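Z., the sequence and structure:
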Amino acid sequence: MTVNLEIATMVSAIMWPIVTLVILLIFRKHLPDLIKGMFKNVKKIDFAGISIERFEAESYTPTWSVNQLDLSDHLAEDMGTYTSSVNSMSDQLFSKGNSDYTIINLGDGRKWLTSRLYIMAIIFARQKGIRSIVFVESNQANQQRFAGWTTPASIRWALAKKYPWLEEAYADAYAAVVRESDESVSSNVGELGSGEPFVLLLRKFLQLIQKAGKNAGLKSNTEWVDIKSLQNTFEHAHWIDGVMIEELLGDDLHVSLLQSNNVKKLKLDNANFQTILESPGEYIAITSTSGRFQGLLNRTKLLEQAVQQFIQHTN
């Protein structure tokens, strides 16, 4: 009888992790909801001594701006002919390989226009496979303070709803590019051939929402922005800051975060586990204790690790 009990104990010890792994694989897509249901009535879990790896999503950071991701000056230079900076932008945007997210640095609220955010959200998603866009703000006290993240689609439709002329201009510009270009859609995510048509799309889109020439009416119109780098040129847009992003996106702006100064490991405690569990969306942000954005973490992978580590520590 003792032998049988020992065998049963050994089999249980071997099979339980395997069964757990199989369950995790089968229900991986629904893991967040599954775990949330399992721990719905659990008030406290002992995670003492447990740390998990920081599974960071892959970022795409263009370098055509020296210090920040700021397209305004470079797109303005592109109005006449291709410059070296625009060619650099084109090379980076249309190089092979996709990423999970990119960072939009709103700075002090005078870095990004609604029009530029709208068109680049579309291009980032279609040409680089970007799944999320992270917003950060910068001031003298805190560089790259995390403001939230959202999907490119949420940005596009929120802006299209509030500023319908953006969607109209995009539709006209895209139709013109498809008619004029020899290249057509070349992938299931909407890439256009080598990507060069997207540069043309960018130019045509901006031309449709800009007006050149001295116009006293536009200068006093809050719906138009004076593009300082272009003489007597106005753009149908608004400057964006963190407050505007919150108002524009509402619940589609994900602000849940974890704080850690450890580069590779994340200490798992009840508070962190609850944050991961209840956060909506595919990712969760991680910041330093001062609020500086460090990266996006894959939420499903974090939950997988949390469950596996918890099971190992309780056996």
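The chain has two domains: 2-57+254-314, 60-248. Residues 30 and 300 are 9 Å apart (CA to CA).

Let me know what you think.
H.
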